[in-house]
Amino acid sequence: MGNIVDDVKREFAKSENALVKIILINTAVFLVLLLSKIILTLSQSSGIYQLVINSVQLPAATSEFIYKPWTLITYFFTHDDIFHILFNMLFLYWFGKLVDEYLGAKRVIALYFLGGIAGGLTYMVLYNVLPYFQAHIEGSRMLGASAAAFSVAVGASTLLPNYTFNLIFLGPIRIKFIALFYIILSLAQTVGPNAGGNLAHLGGAFVGYMFIKLLQSGTDLGKPIYAVMAGWSRLFRKRPAMQVTYRERQVYRSTSVYSSSSSGTIEMPDQTEIDMILDKISKSGYESLTKEEKQKLFKASQQK
């Protein structure tokens, strides 16, 4: 048990593994809720568990939401079904790795949070506006990271539409078709038993698409998220004592893990570098590029 805790601490100490941190947080919340459910059920206090779940689920009714505004964030870190979290985290990992490789860790976080928030708002707005959903609004609540994962998946598919995944029984399939299949499936299920979740999927998918399109034109929707990340890092970062060496008259200080992203430190490549990267792609494919080369290629694509 001690080794597991140490491994988790080491992962959280790293600055460029945002995807792993998101998955670990979701998993930890799931395990805590699962353990609580077992203990409270055995002690015949299952009502307490339901109160806990209701406090983190996103309600459709605005009259309930105004008393629990934090649920717009907590709902996409909460799962109470093992297959639900398993699918969401696998989906998030597969597509999130691509975003991380090409755009850096902070863009994964931005897509996840913005997609989750947009999915939640889509769910609430449509349940309060459309007559079909208004009839089912009482007691309707939502949880799960599906909308946030859809945002990351569609973002990756918009960035690299022709990238292929090798699926069991199906072989290589371009990720744009995988994303399109799940969007159509969610659209078809907006009148089913999980209508709210599928409406949220569509909201997350839209944000994922717009995030990448705007980023390619030079507008980064994630700036507010990065500002919060930087503030959070400064708040909890330990400030070591200043070390001065009088011989060289230099002062050393630690810097924030969020002071710059991997993509932010990449300089604009010249045409020679771009030609070399493109030659490498033609010979060995996208997968052969290093993380720095992928980010240089994306930076060059933003130039008109």
Task: Name the descriptors.
single chain, two-stranded antiparallel ribbon, 14 helices, mainly alpha, Rhomboid-like fold, 2 domains, 304 residues, 6% strand
Describe the structure.
This protein has 304 residues and is mostly helical. The protein has two domains: 16-225, Up-down Bundle (Rhomboid-like fold); 243-301, no CATH class. Helix content is 64%, strand content 6%. It is built from 14 helices and six strands. The chain has helices spanning 2-13, 18-42, 46-56, 62-65, 71-74, 82-103, 105-129, 131-134, 146-159, 175-188, 195-216, 223-236, 271-284, 291-301, and strands at residues 58-59, 141-142, 164-167, 171-174, 243-245, 250-252. The strands form three sheets. The protein has a two-stranded antiparallel sheet. Helix 2 (18-42) packs antiparallel against helix 3 (46-56) and helix 9 runs parallel beside helix 11. The N and C termini lie far apart (53 Å). Residues 246-264 have low confidence and may be disordered.
